[in-house]
Amino acid sequence: xxxxxxxxxxxxxxxxxxxxxxxxTHSAMAKCIxxxxxxxxxxxxxxxxxxxxxxxxxxxxxxxENTRSVxxxxxxxxxxxxxxxxxxxxxxxxxYDWANGELQTLITSQWDAPxxxxxxxKFMTEKAQPLDKALVKALADAARTDxxxxxxxxxxxxxxxxxxxxxxxxxxxxTFNGFGDNGYEDSASDLPTIAQHQIGVKLVESLNKxxxxxxxxVMRSRRLVDLASIPLIEEGVKAMTDWVNEFEKLHRDEIGExxxxxxxxxxxxxxxx
Length: 273
Known about the structure:
Distance between the termini: 27 Å
Number of domains: 1
Number of helices: 11
Low-confidence stretches: 60-71
Helix content: over 70%
Order of helices and strands: HHHHHHHHHHH
Shape: globular
Mean pLDDT: 87
């Protein structure tokens, strides 16, 4: 493909470019935080192994299990198994830094501004992530239990995860800010295939939401002049959808393999559903 995601965004009118850049800023920031957390978990395991005086076999079993865990997370993100989590975080931060820098030159209202790092972390530590109803039912059927039990287990897991995240906040902030101004225009192309695809799908979803938000705002305010941005956002939806479709055709095998492995890969079909 001759165009990467930033190339497509740069060709959009500001009515679509702003929500697209804001969505990319948020997505890359959240994924970067996730990679930093994985890096910190790896560090903790390494330190624990060095201090442990358990027998060599137990250490070997723990190491193998930890290695599998790291590799599974890397594969889910689309990174190669040998790409360290801190390197993954660095690339994702570069995407965030470039998208955020571009966005800051365009916004004229506080409502167009993205979340700050503190704002994103506050969102992550205070808002529970809901489970899709279809997934709840599938899990309940597989575990031969009721949906209420699955929801309770999910809430417990979410609570523990948020508490752990709160403990790591100072280190996460220090690491995130430590990457500095590392953004560059081709950073999106350095993301693995699955990560690029997932961001593309996210942008289509975000642009659709931006269009719906304008419609709702006009219905409330009766400011018909705002309707002028609708076709411009629609053009953005089409441009981004075309890019995702072309990307899926080019990387059909790799995306298909990821789905077959059980990776959480969203597609345009999921958005339509």
